[in-house]
Amino acid sequence: MPKVPIAFLSVLGVALWVGPAEPAMTDKDKAELATAVSGAKVTLEQGLMVSKKNGKPVSAKFEIENGKPQLSVYIVKDGSKYSEVIVDHTSGEIAKAEPITGGDDLTEAKKQSDGMFRATRELREAVKEAKRDNPGYNAVSVWSEMKDNHSVATVTLVKDSDWKTAVIDLTVYKTLIKE
Question: Would you say the C-alpha torsion 33, 34, 37, 39 has a positive or negative sign?
């Protein structure tokens, strides 16, 4: 019987225990969200722009909340105060802003804020670049993270039922990865 190193089994066990944080979207969820995004009068870029009134955007996404579409933007103010700004997807006005004080939302907001550490440009510019490189696609979400000492933005795009992801370097003006 082959011997498997304990270290390998430990790493495998941790990897399996951690698993994905959220279940993947079903085809029905994707279709519903694609319809909401294509029908929204406000773009992700506009939501990012209007949310700047409350702080620096570190992520944004269209989502279906309680059966209704909404545009959620996480922001950071003064380097340590995190909030979720809900932008009305029809008027472009801020519908509400609530502090993020704990749980998974705070963990994600801090991680995304850390992702902006070396950024020389805004998430809004990354979304604009991703859409320019993928004509006809609408931006569904964007979030920041650190990769290889670079601040990068991951932009999720949709056109009809075709979904794409583009990773845009926030420290230079070139696309790193396009799927």
Answer: negative
